[in-house]
Fold this sequence. Notes:
The protein contains 2 helices and no strands.
Amino acid sequence: MSGRAHREGTTFPLPITTGFTGFETKLHQIFNEPYLGDLSPQEAAGQAVAEGNATVK
């Protein structure tokens, strides 16, 4: 194991299924935002769901 301390996280649902293949690139972009410090994981999930739903409509 590296020098990083083990941290326990939390999980939350991410209900994206329909049309996932066409939305995958945008989904990756959205989920890069938490790593860049621009959004929390929950905010990214909410944005992904909203944009995914808009894409399907």
